[in-house]
Amino acid sequence: MSTLSTVDHIAVYPLDLEFQPGAVILAEKLGLNVLPYDCKAELRDRFELILEVTEKGLQIQPTGKGAPGATRVDFLSGSVAHRRQFGGGKGQMIAKAVGVKGAVKPTVLDATAGLGKDAFVLATLGCQVTMLERSPIIHALLQDGLQRARDDSDIGSIVQQMELHNANSIEWMQQHKNESGFQVVYLDPMFPHNDKSALVKKEMRAFRPVVGDDLDADQLLEAAIAIAENRVVVKRPRKAPFLAGRKPSLQFEGKSSRYDIYPLKKLEA
Prior knowledge:
With about 270 residues, this protein is of the alpha/beta class. The protein has helices at about 20-30, 40-45, 80-85, 95-100, 115-125, 135-150, 155-160, 170-175, 200-210, 215-225, and strands at about 10-15, 35, 50-55, 55-60, 110, 130-135, 160-165, 185, 230-235, 250-255, 255-265.
């Protein structure tokens, strides 16, 4: 069991005694503090974030006054499930941006996997998706969500099309650029913001302290262009500047976000 520290901003916490052994193993793997299941709230509040081990899966919980509820990767219910059932299928902007059309279901490298929502949508549309996530904590959340989804009769076959790696995306793409087979590289880097930004959803309150901003996003684009076979797709806030100052050849724009398309050659039908 790790020694508690007032410096570290995140700790692992089991919500019940039966989850304590798993919490210890997870904390050791991630190099984090682990709290006893029966610890008081005052002890948990010493940390900015709590990685909770629960019967419903792994989740991340901000602490302090006014903290939002916990966030976990859940492909079975909530907004992700609703999007799968009612999101518009191949008519969605992300489908058009990636190039899903007719029998064309490109292989996709999602180099900024995050909580896996866009990767799941693409897998739902029939794409094979390889996901890269450099944060070990976010990777653990995503891995937990994928494992729970694999056991579900409705979407188990969908998540089988999703492969996950814990890796620095730039380094990974540079190492695999001569052996990729990825028709599309998809990027959704974290966008620097101030306190007045619209990025105040509960997921962002838990997410951003763990991963920070993607300050190397310009280099990410260059690495993506080097490995993609057909196109690079960059999801951006609608008014955000282009990555690396490179103007895309095509755009799909919505109310709050847009997709910048950097085509290398046309997908074959």
